[in-house]
Amino acid sequence: MLKTEDNELLTRVGPGTPMGDMLRQYWVPAIRSSALEAGGAPVRVRLFAQDFVAFRSPGGEVGFTLEACPHRGVSLALARNESFGLQCIFHGWKLNRNGRVIDAPNEPAKHRAKFVESLRYAPCHAREAGGVLWVYVGKGDPPPFPDWEFNNLPPERVLMRRGVVHYNWLQAVEAHLDSSHVAFLHAGPVQSGGPVMPRIERAELAKYAPQGVAPTFELEETEYGLQESALRAVGDDRIYARVREIVLPFYIFIPGVPNAHCDARISVPIDDYTTAEWYIVYDPAKPLDPDAARARFLNTSDDPDDFAANLGNRENNWHQDRAAMKTGYWSGIVRNLSFEDFVVQASMGSMADRSNEQLGTADMIVVTARRMLLNAVRNFKERNEVPWNSARIDYREIRAQSFVYTQHSDDWRRYLDHVQDNSQRFGSPSTQPREEV
Ligand code: FES
Ligand SMILES: [Fe+2]
Question: What is the pTM of this model?
Fold first, then answer.
């Protein structure tokens, strides 16, 4: 459980809040690249309880700035999209692609340059990678760009979708952190043969993670956050390890079953009560299996910017299907496995009250991550220290992994592959006696 004031400190993300200012120190996905037409209308994007516009100049360069014109606040979604950036339709002020005013043509020529020079400026930074516009809207120069593995793959190996959920960002992150729910909440897709999980994946998961087998969790604090291994004995002295990578504050890599594709999730605050859930499915070594990729988003909304648009709401109990529960589907949230995660979080309300929780040892990862986030935000507030320093992290190396190994006196850490050393996923050139499964 958390004290109410700590819950507030962790969850509030508006301008001027400690957590909001801290989260702004990271690059985040803002909008799909293909939503930006060269020379087209700027597109509104809300992030960290602030309104921005994203745009692509007639020459193809991307830009990102606050939506309100720095002169008198007219929406720049209405602005002219020019080669230099945007030009406000009200008095013609010109902004470059970072949102800096470069001219105020309604001012008298004799002092115009000086006036423009004196204007306040909150720069935004934008760049494209992996089919997405990434932005940095924090103070100062942006940190090194997180060069995730999926940002460097050809398009046929990556599928990226955004879903909008109506709850606070920390609930979104905690849903991805919490691994002790998998055998329960997701028992339906795993066991009942529903359409939402590809056959191979379902069979593998049932084999290695049978319901009722509580894994042992081991946690390792890393430079970037946490590494969590869920270890299950699967007979013959063999251990099935699922290693989750938690890159704080909000990037999470979740292992699939061995030899399936990779999954990453990024939970970006839209405001205190709304979160953009970016789901990234990718295969580093080969084109994505279309069935596996489709299954991830089966029965979700077709809206490419909100695959959760048809999630439902409290009034209709998020379309929970009681008949399906009677015939063996655990949660009754039959549409999609990801929706099971979304529904339980949405059911807690748009801002979960953590002051009444009663946590056990199975909640260790949630408790640890909250402690790390609390320490981080306090240090940031008091000393302006930015946690999980991007300059020291090799983002390309981060990938969730799952594998089986034979237990001697060994440690799962010895079996982790080095991502960049391998040309094949899970095809281990390492000398460790890790099994191929
Ligand atoms: S409000 Fe934009 S130029 Fe005046
Ligand atoms: Fe889940």
Answer: 0.91
